Amino acid sequence: MKKAYLAFLFFVFLVACSDSSPSFVDGASNGSSKKMEGMILVHGGTVTLGSNDSRYRVNERPAMNVLLDYDFYMDVHEVTCDDYRNTAKSGNLKDFTECEDDQYPLSNVTYYDAVLFANAKSKLENYDTAYTYSKAVFDGDGHCTNLDGFAFHPEVKAYRLPTESEWVYVASRGWEPSRNSWNADNSDFKAHHVCTVEKDSLGFCDLAGNVKEWVNDWAGKLLDTTIVNFVGNAGDGNIGERILKGGYYSDYASNMNVVSRGDDYTVVSSSMAKHIGFRLAWGAIPEPTWLSASGNVQSSIVSPIASASVLKSFTGTNDMILAFRNDVSGNLAYINYKDAILTITEISDSIDVYHPDISPDGKKVAFCTKFEGLGGDSRLYVRDLNEKGTNLVKLDVASAAIPRWRVLENGDTVIVYVTDAGNNKDDASFKKSSTWQVKFVDGKFGVPEKLFDGAYHGGISEDYSLAVSGARLLRARIAKSSSTVLDEATDTVWYNGEQACNVSLAHDGSKRVAFLDFGGNTGRKFANENYSTHQRLLVADSMGKLIKSIKAASGYTFDHSEWVSDSENSNIVATLANVNGAHSKIVLASLDDESIVELAEGEELWHPTLWVKRKAKIFGNDSGGSQVGSSVLDLDSAGMYYNNSGACPRAAIFRYKMELLWHYKDSAKTVILGSSRAYHGVNPKLFDEKMKAVNMAVPAATIYGNLYLFENYILPHMKNIKLIITSIDIDRGYLTGQDSENIFYKTYKSYPGYVYDENHNFWKDGYPEGLYQATYESPSADSVLERKMREDLGYYSLFGSSWATTYIRVREDSCWMDKKSDIYRMNFGLLERLLQICKENDIFVIGVLFPQDPKYKNTGAYGYTGLRRSEAPALIQEISDLSKVYSNFILVDENKMGDHDYTDIMGYDNSHISDYGARQLTHRLDSLVHTLDIEF
Question: What is the pLDDT of residues 144-186, one digit of tens each?
């Protein structure tokens, strides 16, 4: 995009379209005979997403072609405050609008706010809805911050957010009309901007100004290929990043173009900002296509429904993994409920996957290549339960089917399997098969051991006294003694010889057996009603007597039932098949109240297994000392520093920082604090080992938040701290303690762990044993982030860009000091307070002015968030002079007003250094520390 055009957009604020709407064309491929008020019909075509230009972000490359072979409608202009308010009144929406003018675009809205608006508008006009969910969560102002069980249905003819492909297709065709008049006020960067749509023209208003706009997609991969009817990625396995398109009224960025997909900071579904709004599209998307997290094209997706918090009432823990076969792709898929943003991960492979079972530690999965009822040779495999399915191993036997993990009394982990999973109705054929077990240690199989004749693939009790099977008949093997598998046993048939299948034995000591039947007489008599095949889950006791029956929802039948057991709770996971026989849902059935909760939905979901780790109660040490006496941690709150409320997009990073804090509370001697500049700029592992450094910096952190963290957590618990290294962000001196950038202002209340700590005076009277373990096991967001935080001690490296590849950008008005000098003074006082506390506790403080893009020398701004360059030297000197009062402080200026020696490759963007820059800066700090009088 040409720079002249971009410069023109810098001051765009409001677009008010005239009432003379363009004429509409009826008869779109998925259109309506009804005129769609305020929308324009767009005929399909080809569009390019992303770019091959290396200056763009990783998820904005490479260029990918999309063919849209359908027509759709899209709003002429962004949804206004008046639009929202009118729909809110009649559509039962929360009215949170605060606008200077009702014709201004609605802003400060979450993705979920936009979704609810689209649904409400669809209902008001008697359409089905494009979005479904089970529960909505709102903040105190009425904004929706989460939708449990959220799913998008592109095949539904309804109002919805446009896909990125649709938005870019419209924007790249130059359908935005010329501006007839505009004026701007430089001081606050707001403008009135008139967009007139000529009659019968195809004209969209303000695709590049006013507010950035939510689109429907997750922010995932792009591929160098052509995709038909692309609707985005099937999910974002990181922290739930969404896509924003277009520019906004005070955006100085030269990346306001159709390629850009983001904002200044990562945006998730619950993000809000004064420059974020949306417009709607309408119409179904035929035969949609997604991209999986691994980059595979998918014609269907699986959607999680129930959240971890919902399932916790059934299982007692957040530590759960649901694994199953996606029969459309043939792949193993799973959901990790410790991830606060629930997504589906598929392990792409050519090997058939049936009857998966997760290892006792939750780290591996066993599966076979034939399913129950199908005879013949089967192969058994084990692999790591991660997105790559690493460390695949095969059991070297002629045939092995339906694996089941178990832990023996001696502690050995074994897998029980059968030689044939076929029809067990014929006695002679059944006895030719057999049941075996094999040790699995250090990623390797041991020597298989035969247990007994007969394919008892429904499970074996912990004491080996009962084994069951079902693939036409419900067979049981009942031993005379539980002491050894070699004792004599009786093979019998239960359930009066009627047909039964999907047999599963509970592993909670009860020896209960769950199974499905074919609407037989025995089941009907017990249920006291007639029912069809697989319409009821049946449960028998250890002697085969029916004790429970649970009915499927209307229009569905059960299949693939399996026990979900732990030491305290037992439930049953199963699939639901619709009237067409498609296994479209996975559900969890409670034996206590016979309730059923939906876990996932898709086209064909088979063989679910739900792994649950039961957390033991954690008691404190009552011997005094540094422990909390006789206390029991509430595991619903302790260490729960993250969830899917989305109140703070950076909460996922804070969650790992808290884990690091509790883990290194006794060993850390150096702590890095500050904003993203320190988070990406100081590598603890490069310091002298005796310094024992941990990086506790967090993106967008303020001095207020850093001080709160220091006073309430670091100082009371990291008692061996000798050195604090912190970023000094003078250009961010306009931020207050009440700014949304500070999680410790009010958003921390959305995360139970912080509230729990606060209610216990931050454990200043003694650390409660088990808090680190509770934090370690609490919900997280991203396996990559988790690994990097743990391995690199809180440091997050940046690669793939440089000073040379970035355009210069000033995010805020450089003159902010004129109006906000009092805020700067307050922050200066907070810095002094930190220095005073550290001096009283013999802690040395190194403040760092981090390098920024040297091209700021050619502007009037000090850095990314402004501040006049002419003001900066005096402010820097004032901070440096604090060392005259606080002998424990030294200021290190690595920016030098842009005259630094951090080469192009050492820069990442306008405001951050790359990993190469972090190496140079960290080595310099390490050398400096060695000259100081600090005893580590």
Answer: 988 888 889 999 999 999 999 999 999 887 554 433 522 223 2
Assign 3-class secondary structure to 189-246.
Answer: CEEEEEECCCCCCCCCCCCCCCCEEEEEEECCCCCCCEEECEEEECCCCCCCEEEEEC
Cα 628 from Cα 543, distance rounded (Å)? 48
Write down the residue that tokens 């009309």 correspond to.
Answer: 177
**Whose structure tokens read 């809110």?**
88
Q: Rounded to a whole number, what is the distance in angstroms from the first to the last CA of the chain?
A: 54
Alpha-carbon dihedral sign for residues 804, 806, 812, 815: positive
CA distance linking residue 536 with residue 526, whole number of Å:
11
pLDDT tens for each residue of 440-449: 999 999 999 9
Sign of the alpha-carbon torsion through 419, 420, 426, 429? negative
What's the rounded Cα separation, in Å, for the pair 632 and 725? 35
Eight-class DSSP state of 779: -
Q: How much is the pLDDT for 400?
A: 97
Distance CA 570, CA 549 (A): 15
338 class by beta-carbon count within 10 Å (0-12 exposed, 13-18 middle, 19+ buried): buried
CA angle 527, 533, 537 (to 5 degrees): 50
Q: What is the reported pLDDT for 483?
A: 56
Q: Write out the two tokens for 165.
A: 């492909």
Distance CA 614, CA 316 (A): 7
Residue ranges and CATH numbers for the domains of the chain are: 3-291 (3.90.1580.10), 670-741+795-929 (3.40.50.1110)
- CB contact at 8 A, 841 and 809: no
Candidates 551, 817, 545, 844; CA nearest to 670 is 844
Contacts of 309 by beta carbon, 8 Å cutoff, 6+ apart: 148, 318, 643
Q: Which residue has 């990125």 as its token pair?
A: 164
Structure-block tokens of residue 612: 């649950």
Which run of H or of E encompasses 676? Answer: helix 676-679
What are the phi and psi torsion angles at 766 (to 5°)? 150, 135
Dist CA 469 CA 503 (whole Å): 6
Four-residue CA torsion sign, 857, 860, 864, 866: positive
Q: In what order do the strands lie in the sheet with 393-394?
A: 354-358, 364-368, 380-384, 393-394
| Joined tokens for residue 100 | 């200077």
For residue 346, what are the CA distances in angstroms to 154, 240, 295, 334, 780?
21, 17, 11, 7, 19
The two structure tokens encoding residue 24: 């509409």
Burial 303-315 (b: 16+ CB within 10 A, else e): bbbbbbbbbbebb
| The residue count for the chain | 936
Sequence-distant (6+) residues with CB within 8 A of 679 are 653, 695, 697, 698, 699, 794, 795, 796
Could you write out the DSSP letters of every residue in 627-642? BPTT-B--TTTTT---
List all residues 6 or more positions away from 434 whose beta carbon is below 8 Å from its beta carbon: 418, 419, 450, 451, 452, 453, 454, 455
Q: What is the pLDDT of residues 629-652, one digit of tens each?
A: 335 788 788 999 988 676 777 888
pLDDT in tens, 390-446: 999 999 999 999 999 999 988 899 999 999 999 999 999 999 999 999 999 999 999
Sign of CA dihedral 167, 171, 173, 178: positive
Q: How far apart are CA 778 and CA 339, in angstroms?
A: 9
Alpha-carbon distances of 316 from 147, 598, 756, 819, rounded to whole Å: 22, 17, 19, 52
Q: What is the mean pLDDT of residues 501-516?
A: 94
Burial of residue 184 (CB within 10 Å: 0-12, 13-18, 19+) is middle
